[in-house]
Amino acid sequence: MTILGFLLLIILFLSFFIYCSWLNPEDITLIYWTGKSITFSPALLILGFVLVGLCIGYGAHIYSVLVHGVKHWRRERSEKKTREISAIYREGVGRLLSGDLKKARVLLQKTLERDPKSIDSLIALASVQLQDGEGSEAVKLLLKARDIDGKNLEVLFKLATTYQKLDQTDEAIEAYQAILALESDNRKALRSLRDLHIAAGNWQEAYDLQKRVIKVAQKSKRLADEKKLLANLRYEVARLLLENGEADKALGEFQDLVKNAPELVPARVSLGDAQKAVGRGDDAVRTWQEGYQKLGRSIFLSRLEDYYMETEDPAGLLTFYRDATSRKPDDMLLRLFFGKFCLRLEMVEEAIDQLYMVESSGIESTQLNFLLGEAYRRRDRIEDAVEEYKRALGTNKHLRLGFVCDHCGKSYQEWQSRCDECGNWGGLSLINRQLFHEARPIEVREIHHGER
């Protein structure tokens, strides 16, 4: 306010006082105690009230200014402290990312000394401890962060993954369940918890979680893969039913799986196993035969061979092989197994015929070398047998050829539905099976005089 304005205000106030005095010439007597009183004019009373009001207002203004100043000072001090802590924290994280764990530890501990409730610092220091091999210390820091903010998803995820790295599966499961208690449709938590159950072989739990994943991933680009995984997990649940003697229940599950996921090799294999378990051997044979015709996987031929040998009916499988090779003479995989079966039955000449036809297609395979070596040995063609054995990898009682995972390359002596190494279902195939599928027999024709 300017001086001129202040003077104008005083003149207006005095004019008001004179005007009130002129209108109210009488005095007012105010008794404030027994026998005690004071007499003054109404204008003076009004003046007193106005002055008191001005003093109160001014005092309130002064108080407001002081409070605002204190708050501003505190805020600036807090912001300065926050900036300093943030700078130290960023430097500590930078050291962590560059691999300087010692310096990172010092800086992050310094931030916690200045702000013990810093969630970010606790998480970063836990990462330092984990990389430094102090897993239990990392867990303690993360548990402290969880106590500060139990609904912080970053803390819960970090705690869960830390438990996983420490192979504390039960604790990791509890951490993911805590996340799902806060967000029931959190895809990352659902998938991580599902993967933990898969690794632990808890197929029913993994299957239930996968159904929830699909429910929340309807518009995801990964939906097709998620549905494929659901079928695989359903297969594992049904397989457990079969292993536990509940063949009737398993049979229905396998039938539905084959209908909805016709390319799932393990489902067709186990459908035949379930049919066999309930006494429907002929149905099992048809299932495995159809499985080979549609999918071309050697496990179906192995199942057929085992079944016919168990039932002491090798003639039935011989009939199948002869009919199948007459219909598909270019199927070298079929001829390989045909020759192997003949060799197992000591039908050596027919075995050599089939195996030689496979060899004539240009296939170079250790399994083929092994079978030819056995055939030549049983016909006392020792030199030929030795040459083939040199190319082969070994021998076994039932002339099993072994399997390899199409995805990761791990070898197995016996077929199984899922690869232990990479976790993919239905990927086990005969080694070099693609060679047999792609090969065609060489056309035999007369060589004319003078032609090489």
From TrEMBL:
<keyword id="KW-1133">Transmembrane helix</keyword>
<keyword id="KW-0472">Membrane</keyword>
<dbReference type="Pfam" id="PF13181">
    <property type="entry name" value="TPR_8"/>
</dbReference>
<keyword id="KW-0802">TPR repeat</keyword>
<feature type="repeat" description="TPR">
    <location>
        <begin position="366"/>
        <end position="399"/>
    </location>
</feature>
<feature type="transmembrane region" description="Helical">
    <location>
        <begin position="44"/>
        <end position="67"/>
    </location>
</feature>
<dbReference type="Pfam" id="PF12895">
    <property type="entry name" value="ANAPC3"/>
</dbReference>
<dbReference type="InterPro" id="IPR051012">
    <property type="entry name" value="CellSynth/LPSAsmb/PSIAsmb"/>
</dbReference>
<protein>
    <submittedName>
        <fullName>Uncharacterized protein</fullName>
    </submittedName>
</protein>
<dbReference type="InterPro" id="IPR011990">
    <property type="entry name" value="TPR-like_helical_dom_sf"/>
</dbReference>
<dbReference type="InterPro" id="IPR019734">
    <property type="entry name" value="TPR_rpt"/>
</dbReference>
<keyword id="KW-0812">Transmembrane</keyword>
<feature type="repeat" description="TPR">
    <location>
        <begin position="153"/>
        <end position="186"/>
    </location>
</feature>
<keyword id="KW-0677">Repeat</keyword>
